[in-house]
Amino acid sequence: MALDKVDAVIVGAGAAGPIIAKELVLAGHHVVLLERGKFYQPSDCRKDDLYNQRTTILGNAFGPDSEGEPRVSVDARGRERLILPWEGGYNNNASCVGGGTLSYGAMAWRFHPLDFTMRSKYGAIKDSTLDDWPVTYDDLEPYYERAEWEIGVSGDDSNNPFKGPRNRPLPMPPVGPPSIEHRTLDAAARKIGLHPFDIPMLRNSVPYNGRPACMRCRWCVGFACEVDAKCGTQNTVLRTALRTGNLELRTECMTREVTVDDHGRATGVEYYDENGRLQEQPASLVVVSCGANESARLLLNSKSKLFPQGLGNRYDWVGRNLQGHNYTGAFALFEQDMYDDLGPGASIAVCDYNHGNPGLAGGAMLANEFIRLPIQAFGATPPGTPRWGKPFKDFMRQNYRRTVAVQGPTQEIPTWDSRVELDPKIKDKWGIPVLRMSGFRHPHTVEIGEAMSFKAEAWLKAAGAIQTWRKVGGRGLSGGQHQAGTVRMGKDPKTSAVDQNCRVHESDNVYVVDASVHVTNGGFNPVLTIMALAYRAGDHLVARMKGARA
Question: Of 512, 517, 508, which Cα lies nearest the Cα of 266?
Answer without folding.
Answer: 508
